[in-house]
Amino acid sequence: MAHEHHHHHTDVDWGALAPLLESQAELLAPMYRQIAGRLGERGARPGLIVDAGSGPGAVSCVLAQAFPDARVVAVDGSEPLLERARVRAARLGLADRFSTLTGELPGVLDKLEYPADLIWASRSLHHLGDQRAALAAFADRLAPGGVLALLEGGLPSRSLPRDIGIGRPGLEARLDAVETERFTAMRAELPGVVAETEDWAALMTSVGLRAPMTRTFLFDLPAPLSDEARACVVAEFQRRRDKLADALDATDRATLDRLLDPDDKASLHHRPDVFVLEAHTMHTAVRA
Question: Which CATH class is domain 14-287?
Answer without folding.
Answer: alpha beta
